[in-house]
């Protein structure tokens, strides 16, 4: 697919604290459905919580790399962890876009909740200058987009994600039945000494155990 035609690249950001099957399954389904050349998981920089042991940025990156090993369509992009200044999504899109050909398609994959919070993001109106937005939405979701996004949706939304044209500028929704897994749930299980197996890749769980992550603080 990387011949003379335009490439199709999608970005999925997150704290991935830790990365789990829900993240990975959604990423793989979108990569297959959209016939992407690659979907990049981008761990975000975030200061650790002070009340419980948390994974460092380097550890979160290592877990994502272990999780996607062997899956050629999923890649890891660590540019947000290398920045000294606050890491904003629009800066990441600008940075990736600068590395692509003008005709390459760039997609930003967001969950519904993240999409609804866009008006609070830094320079959010500029996101569509660099990419298309793909929004994961559950078939049973009955919430409406906030008013600040309705005019944008009316002007930019495309009903079929596969018909998105050009390098960026449009919004489409991908209907998905997500796995009911959360990083919060996994951290709670591990902090209380219970098993998180089958909620995240075995290699990631082994890394967590080897580095004694997410354990309850000792009294």
UniProtKB/TrEMBL annotation:
Domain Cytidyltransferase-like stretches: 11-188
Residue spans crossing the bilayer: none
Pathway this chain belongs to: Cofactor biosynthesis; NAD(+) biosynthesis; deamido-NAD(+) from nicotinate D-ribonucleotide: step 1/1
Signal peptide span: none
InterPro entries assigned: Cyt_trans-like (IPR004821), NadD/NMNAT (IPR005248), Rossmann-like_a/b/a_fold (IPR014729)
Listed HAMAP family: NaMN_adenylyltr
NCBIfam families cross-referenced by the UniProt entry: cyt_tran_rel (TIGR00125), nicotinate (nicotinamide) nucleotide adenylyltransferase (TIGR00482), PRK00071.1-1 (NF000839), PRK00071.1-3 (NF000840)
Similarity comment: Belongs to the NadD family.
Function recorded in the entry: Catalyzes the reversible adenylation of nicotinate mononucleotide (NaMN) to nicotinic acid adenine dinucleotide (NaAD).
Name of the featured protein: Probable nicotinate-nucleotide adenylyltransferase
Source species: Ectopseudomonas khazarica
């Amino acid at each position: 697919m990387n011949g003379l035609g335009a490439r199709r690249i999608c970005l999925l950001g997150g704290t991935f604290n830790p990365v789990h099957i829900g993240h990975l399954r959604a990423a793989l389904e979108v990569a297959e459905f959209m016939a992407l050349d690659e979907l990049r998981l981008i761990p975000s920089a975030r200061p650790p919580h002070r009340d419980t042991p948390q994974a460092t940025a380097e550890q979160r990156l290592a877990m994502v790399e272990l999780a996607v090993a062997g899956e050629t369509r999923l890649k890891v992009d660590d540019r947000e962890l290398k920045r000294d200044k606050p890491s904003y999504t629009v800066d990441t899109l600008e940075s990736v876009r600068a590395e692509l050909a003008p005709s390459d398609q760039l997609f930003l994959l967001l969950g519904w909740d993240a999409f609804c919070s866009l008006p609070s993001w830094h320079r959010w109106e500029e996101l569509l200058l660099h990419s298309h937005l793909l929004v994961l939405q559950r078939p049973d979701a009955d919430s409406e987009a906030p008013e600040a996004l309705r005019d944008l949706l009316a002007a930019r939304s495309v009903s079929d994600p596969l018909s998105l044209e050009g390098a960026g500028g449009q919004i489409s929704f991908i209907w998905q039945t997500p796995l009911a897994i959360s990083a919060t749930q996994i951290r709670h299980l591990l902090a209380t000494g219970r098993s998180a197996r089958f909620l995240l890749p075995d290699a990631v769980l082994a890394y967590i155990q080897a580095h004694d992550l997410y354990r309850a603080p000792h009294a």
